Amino acid sequence: MLGLPDDITVALFDLDGVLTDTASVHRTAWTDAFNAFLTRRAGADISGRTDELRPFTDQDYFSFVDGRPRVDGVRSFFASRGLDVDEQTVTAVADSKNEAFLAALARDGVTAYPGSVRYLHAAREAGLRTAVVTSSRNGAQVLETAGLTEFVEHRVDGNTIVDEGLAGKPAPDSYLRGAELMGVAPAAAAVFEDAVSGVQAGHAGDFGYVVGIDRVGGGQSAAMSEAGASIVVGDLDELLAEN
Description:
6-stranded parallel beta sheet
């Protein structure tokens, strides 16, 4: 009834963009943080800068930042532009982004996608166990604010990744840790992701099913399929409609 293979007993959900409408908040915070840095680096208005200092775009977010641990996203974006920066700068940009994200949470709150809430209720009724695997270090706060904590048996987040020395997405480590906490082999777990890097992580970990959630359009669905998604949907409750 959940649009999954019969041998799947555990669902491992990414958080931002899968369960909660916070991916756009992250994207805006990253845009502000990176463009502030690029403006300082150029010493002039970003509209006239050289190629490596051109403004941060949505495609930059999807290609180099989305789904990755915070400092990994900073390093990945800087590397894509060939910018040589020290770790102090990496940390400063990451902290600036997080401050903007937390301010937006305090100001606007968090909204859970209605389709995702319907799916979580259906999963609970069907006996599918659920956990969250997110690169965000604010996972607990986002879940609590969105009213979703009750659905989550275990949480692997950015704090877990740092504390346990796990490699971030697109490496499968965080999802493998989620499966371990749930007491199942990867083959018995499904990964739910809205980021290509997360889909790559699910595929690399040999999970039993990888669900891509495309909320942005364009070439995202094709990129997810190429990255190893078993299926790509626009919202989680589309899986319920499959039955």
